[in-house]
Amino acid sequence: MKLTGKVAIVTGGSRGIGAAICDRLAKAGADVVINYRSHQEGAQATLEAVQKAGASGHIVQADLSQVENIQRLVEESIEHFGKVDILVNNAGLEKRSDFWEVTEAEYDLVLNVNLKAVFFACQAVVRHFRATQNPGRIINISSVHEELPFPHFTSYCASKGGVQMITRNLAVELGEMGITVNNVSPGAIATSINQTLLDNPEKRKQVTRNIPLGRLGDPEDVAGLVAFLASDEAKYVTGSTFYVDGGLLWNYKEQ
């Protein structure tokens, strides 16, 4: 999977799955724009990994809950590298709360970062693709919880269900331009967003029992699929959702 000469934007690239995606795309030859919101040290570490892989990197701080910041991210990426070929919408967050306790501010934060940011990042990049007649690639990082209920995380599930439908709709609308849009939906991955699970041996054992492959995933398990979808090997793949979950979705039993 060669991405030599390509430029990718990866949102939320300072840690976890996002950092692994940046590293994997760089190893395939792509130059990478590393977006972060607050973890500057992590973004710098990702940049060093990209450079170690032999690619060029550029860091852009942007709070993706603000549309003007999304537009600035894309504009600065184009200004720095001259173009964008690949967008990976990876940034996301979750807030645990009983449904009857969720505040409007909590709801807005989750939906703004997980759904609105995906919508407007796609829009900004598609405008560039159209202006340059570039049949680019868009890869959205969703979650098994676009399909799988997750009690106490209703806003998160709603946001990820929306990401899946954005993916399907854009694949149809943008197909005539040669732009592909796909969805990668991780299950239980060993990252900081799942730190509570990682720190609780009993809870981790309960989750692992639901995974046919018998382990939590690694960020690299997601990154390899993203690299494939960004490459010409996937040029006839669009509108699809790929579950990277060790079989969890079809074997899950709520404890």
From TrEMBL:
<dbReference type="InterPro" id="IPR036291">
    <property type="entry name" value="NAD(P)-bd_dom_sf"/>
</dbReference>
<dbReference type="InterPro" id="IPR002347">
    <property type="entry name" value="SDR_fam"/>
</dbReference>
<comment type="similarity">
    <text>Belongs to the short-chain dehydrogenases/reductases (SDR) family.</text>
</comment>
<dbReference type="Pfam" id="PF13561">
    <property type="entry name" value="adh_short_C2"/>
</dbReference>
<keyword id="KW-0560">Oxidoreductase</keyword>
<dbReference type="InterPro" id="IPR020904">
    <property type="entry name" value="Sc_DH/Rdtase_CS"/>
</dbReference>
<dbReference type="GO" id="GO:0047936">
    <property type="term" value="F:glucose 1-dehydrogenase [NAD(P)+] activity"/>
</dbReference>
<protein>
    <submittedName>
        <fullName>Glucose 1-dehydrogenase</fullName>
        <ecNumber>1.1.1.47</ecNumber>
    </submittedName>
</protein>
